[in-house]
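user:
I keep going back and forth on a fold encoding question. Separate attempts, laid side by side, tell us more than any discussion would. Would you put together a sequence-and-structure record for a protein of your own picking? Write it directly below this note and I will take it from there.

assistant:
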Amino acid sequence: MTLTFLPKTPPIKNYSDHSSESLERLHDIASNLPKLLLTNKVQPTINSLSKNDLSVNDLFIEGRAKNIRLAMVHLSFIAHAYVWGGSKPESSLPEVLAKPWNKVAQTLGRPPILSYASYCLDNWFKINEDEKISLENVGLITNFLGGVDEDWFVTIHVCIEHAASEAVTAAIELSKMTVENSEDDILGHLKSITKSLQEVNRIFSRTPEKCDPYIYYHRVRPFIFGSKDNPDLKEGLIYEGEFDNKPQFYRGETGAQSAIMPLLDGALGVHHTNDNLRHYLNEMRDYMPPDHRKMIEDAESSSQTTKLIKDSKVLSDEYDNCLEEIRAFRAQHLEFAGTYINKQSQIKSTFGRGGSTVTGTGGTPFMQYLKKHRDETESQKIKSD
């Protein structure tokens, strides 16, 4: 069985039959976000609602897990549009948004913030249901301003998750290998990881085809920031009626919340030094679906890969091939960060705002972290003669 961090079946675009008036309203607002943002009507629309007008109580019955994930997508996008869609960030979310968002988030085991799971994993559909997942057959359920650049940016990541399924499956099996397994068993899993990651890197390299750096920086990036370590929300974000009305600090959406690379690091025994980067990467797991976290933890605790390969040139060589693909992915990420963020931050423009130029959407010094991540991967190759 092939495993993936995407949902086992495609996410739903609409709530199940007999949805309540509040769910229909939630769906309508989320579907109209591009128009509401364009006309500066997100905040007036939300502020005009009564506190129960976006109630999600009807979702909490048996068999509606997909509906709950869809509500998390809708509420996350609407809340971020509310906070980041005006001329300056809003530091407080009204109860009509805060209460259902926090309820759904608690049910899913994640914080009430737009995370990678809602931005990517649960936010797509197949245009032609009879065709495979591909860049030519995936659309988004919800977006902010919409347009080719925003959709392509997210679609790239959906297709990366799909392409990584063979690597995910092989990594989990590899983490279970012991001295009782044959060299061929181990080699087969390593080769599967390498092949799968080659396709991941091919897809990732297509990002510039339809996502322009200028548009990304000014029209996509500003909506996915969080409140933690963000100079634009130094005092945090208040969720009215929740958390005793005390400001909360959460990381913004970032690819570091994908479980692919942490799982591969765990299964392959790639270690990161015990510093701020490692603490940050561990923190990102709080934003993942709980079952994804568990898969990473299980791989880390059980993997014997580095011990099993050390005395075999064949295995060591293929292990290095795996690490080379991971290094290449991280190097490509670093290059894109330079093109899509650093360079754009130096261009004077009144066309939107890209947010902090030195802090990533996850609230980190991203260029420094990406370089370190890449270099640590390279340094752990076996490099056998």
